[in-house]
Amino acid sequence: MKSHARVVVIGGGVVGCSVLFHLARAGWTDAVLIERDELTSGSTWHAAGGMHTINGDPNVAKLQKYTISLYKEIEELSGQATGVHLTGGVFLAATEARMDWLRNMVAKGRYLGIELEEISPREAAELMPLIDPGQFVGAIHNKEDGHLDPSGVTHAYAKAARKLGAEIERFTKVEDIVCRPDGMWRVITNKGEVVAEHVVNAGGLWAREVGRMVGLELPVLAMEHMYLITEDMPEVAAWNKKTSTEIMHAVDFDGELYLRQERGGMLMGTYEKAGKPWSEQATPWDFGHELLEPDIDRIAPSLEVGFRHFPAFQNTGIKQIINGPFTFAPDGNPLVGPVRGLPGFWVACGVMAGFSQGGGVGLALSNWMMNGDPGADIFAMDVARYGDWASMAYTNTKVRENYSRRFSIRFPNEELPAGRRLKTTPIYDCLAQRGAQFGSAYGLEVPLWYAPEGVRDEFSWRRSTDFEHVTAEVKTARERVGLSEISSFAKYKVTGTGAGAWLDRLLACKLPAAGRMTLAPMLKEDGRLIGDFSLANLGAGHNGKAEWFIAGSGVAEQYHMRWFERHLPADGSVKIEALGLSRVGLSIAGPRARDVLAKVTHADVSPSAFKFMDIGRIDIGMASCLVGRVSYTGDLGYEIWMAPEYQRHVFEILLAAGEEFGIGLFGSRALNALRLEKNYGSWAREYRPIYGPLEAGLDRFVAYAKPAEFIGKKAAVAERASGGKLRLRSFVVEAVDADVIGDEPIWHNGAVRGWVTSGGYAHHSGVSVAMGYVPKEIADESDGFEIEFLGRRHAARMQSVPLFDGNQERLRG
Ligand SMILES: Cc1cc2nc3c(=O)[nH]c(=O)nc-3n(C[C@H](O)[C@H](O)[C@H](O)COP(=O)(O)OP(=O)(O)OC[C@H]3O[C@@H](n4cnc5c(N)ncnc54)[C@H](O)[C@@H]3O)c2cc1C
């Protein structure tokens, strides 16, 4: 074994081998993969080998499509057969709600280049003869589905990587990983040590153990998973003979089943409701090529449905039941990327569909390691979507929930029950008493809307039980004054002698003067967005030291901290701290917001004394708060930040003062409706790392001419000169009883040209709104747009001027 390498990849499952292959293909051949046993000795060897392009997240779907397209290349490069059978597949719906979900998939596929076709149950049965069409209401057909040989694929990656110059050490166990003072990693094995610049944890079933070697507790857990293989079936033989093709794949969501042909019989697997975790605390090192004891009772309810939906199974015997463990993250997506605080340590684990996703994971990670950027929008798989709050027990409850719901529909208004009430703010109970219906964001309970006694969300693709109540909340905020909790934002404090200069380089905006705020886009080297914040210059405090306050997306706190810390100067002249829930917030907004504020403070908050985008320390009642004159509702409003011990006091005093003005509470659904009619985008929806500031309409906040060489300046200037490719636009949609959710295709003159990033009903304006990207060439056309959702194309009119307060009189007045 070599003593030094640029990269050590730990784990020779399908994921580790894919990472090694991608690094070697892109030129990093000084890489060695270390596997404690034979390759495939974790989950990989007993996988069912199914592969699919469709995924709820369009960015993950793109990487799945890439994975499947890769198999031919690695087979040719390595000379190792991958056993790919591109049979095609049918996805079956037994209910109308499921069919709506599938129609949304078909629509998404149009801009992802995934060809999906809606078909009738009868047509599905013509393609896949074991189906009883009477059991289903519809289906979609995907030509790109199939299965492969898990061991063949893994060895093909490995052989191709070796051919390109990478090395593989089998039967070598990594026992410890130590970071040297110079930042290099000592990877200590039972056969010696390798010193490496980068280490990749692709430890699969042992990813937690490998993480623990560097003090990292990764949110992954293995679940047992079973599939059965039948005896040879005459129906299979007859179909093979008649058509000279294999029986195609089927996914029966309502039965929680997947099926494919296996030799002369069939393979049927299930994500049963009563899923069972495996090795909850630690994975035994002596586990490898064993299988787990099958438990047919656990999967019997799903099998009963399966035997009804696919009657030929009733007349055949079961040859074998495979039960094996594989790992999941709390939301079922992989954990990929660099780990905050551990430069040079990377993860590629929690990959629950290694044969659909392994190639995409390898590509994204190798890009990231080599170029500092994954090259695609992979936030859905980014390890930084979790923070320390995702503890082992949280992971356990969420993974169980996710497994049991693997094939369940998640409606756009559905909040999942596991892992809840983990983080709450001091006014949680006050809000709950007033009917707050909570969702969870980055582990924190956030009020979505306020329900009268006895009313609850009815889960639906269409407008639901909350509709009229959110309308009332919006009315309060637009006509009188609304109060909302805003603690879920991420908040950061920046201090130190070098803070100003550092922020000037980090952020693309002009820095605000003391006592002022600005919108602050943050760019990557390639000039695309990696954050959008509000930045406040708090000036020098009583200690005479400059302080800056940043507020941004709550779900991206770890993601942004990773970026901030990566760019901190080494001399300690700048300190940045994520304030988390040590700073909580409330916001008041609406035409009477100033009247309420004036009643609870001695400070002068008159329009001339406290202008739009001013910020300062102000007492509210007896509590010292930081108050900024800004509101995401796009109206006159204030954001009020305080230490948590004051939140109840401030909440009560604002409500009491607001009574005479008709104050009312509003939640994040109302806020969404309010920001949509202002054409305001938000991080993780409109603003993502694949769009430039010009494309996203944030260029007016970019100080192209400022002297500071801010990150991404050159590329941003080039984008401005070339005009970029896309434009973010708002549309009013002719919708009847449902609104867009996000990820729907935008048609123009009969062709799919763009995609929706978010939308909903703008209750105050009384119209349905969608925001999304279209090519710049058609971005100024007002006619010819349609947006497809729930199986129908809806006429859409471009809305360039915000529906509400287009001239900003209310906002700035
Ligand atoms: C029953 C079953 C059916 C499945 N069906 C499908 C399917 O149809 N389609 C699909 O896409 N996926 C399927 N999967 C999931 C699939 O198997 C996984 O997504 C995939 O195997 C994950 O690969 P991995 O490389 O991340 O992990 P693993 O396969 O677990 O590999 C990790 C490797 O790391 C090595 N390792 C760990 N720690 C160390 C160390 N300290 N030193 C050296 N080596 C180490 C291990 O020995 C192991 O070989 C199925 C899984 C099961 C159990």
Task: Write up this protein.
It comes from Mesorhizobium retamae. With 813 residues, this protein is an alpha+beta fold. 26% of the residues lie in helices and 28% in strands. It contains 19 helices and 38 strands. Helix 1 packs across helix 9 (354-371), helix 2 (58-78) crosses helix 9 and helix 12 packs across helix 17. It is globular, with a radius of gyration of 27 Å. It starts with a strand and ends with a helix. The structure holds flavin-adenine dinucleotide. Flavin-adenine dinucleotide is lined by residues 10-16, 34-37, 41-44, 46-50, 173-174, 202-206, 210, 225, 227, 322, 324-326, 349, 351-356. The site of flavin-adenine dinucleotide has 41 residues, from helix 1, strand 12, strand 17 and helix 9.
Name some characteristics of this structure.
binds flavin-adenine dinucleotide; alpha+beta; oxidoreductase; 813 residues; GcvT/YgfZ_C; FAD-dependent oxidoreductase; 8-stranded mixed beta sheet; GcvT_C; globular
Unreliable parts: none
Helical amount: 25-40%
* Quaternary form: single chain
Give the total of beta strands.
38
What molecules are bound to this protein? flavin-adenine dinucleotide
Radius of gyration based on Cα positions:
27 Å
- State the major sheet: 9 strands, mixed
Structural class given helices, strands, pairing? alpha+beta
**Ends distance:** 71 Å
Averaging pLDDT over every residue, what do you get? Answer: 97
The total count of helices amounts to: 19
Give the overall form: globular
Binned strand content = 25-35%
Domain FAD dependent oxidoreductase central: 371-424
Domain FAD dependent oxidoreductase: 6-367
Keywords: Oxidoreductase
Domain GCVT N-terminal: 427-706
